[in-house]
Design a protein that fits this description.
The protein has 142 residues and is α/β, with parallel strands linked by helices. It is built from two helices and eight strands.
């Protein structure tokens, strides 16, 4: 395997989810599939990175610690300035973290899936050292 190709989420309603993933995350809608019940979105590198399938009013993900998907991370830029710009335009933000190798904002999509928006730290080479793993999560101040 060379990379994670795509993620698929079941959603209650397509319009708010499409708006979230285009306006907040920065993906672009590619098209509708399954008779308009699903939308494909891309970041530009592949045909789609995210598929949203509308399922209506059904129970959503459990909160807190549980088995299954924890969150999905989306790289949104190349610098801390890019993350600051996102921070200034997004509410609410559920959390922030400095992971040493990256800096992150955490928020929830319209169906309460946790989403991480991050930028890599340009001055940390995780290929050469794993020292960052000893203290991987610190508070982030923007």
């Amino acid at each position: 395997m060379t990379e994670l190709a795509h993620v698929v989420f079941y959603v209650r309603s397509l319009p708010p989810s499409v708006t979230f993933y285009t306006d907040i995350v920065g993906l672009t809608q590619v098209g509708n599939v399954f008779g308009g019940r699903a939308v494909m979105l891309t970041g530009g590198r592949t045909h789609h990175k995210l598929l949203l399938i509308e399922v209506g009013d059904t129970p959503g993900p459990s909160v807190g610690r549980r088995l299954g998907l924890y969150h999905v991370g989306w790289k949104i830029g190349e610098s801390l300035a890019d993350l600051r710009r996102a921070y200034e335009h997004i509410t609410p933000i559920d959390g922030m973290a400095n992971h040493t190798v990256s800096q992150s904002l955490y928020l929830s999509d319209p169906d309460d899936n946790e989403v991480e928006l991050f930028v890599d730290a340009p001055d940390v080479d995780w290929h050469k050292s794993d020292a960052w793993m000893r203290d991987p999560v610190k508070p982030l101040k923007l």
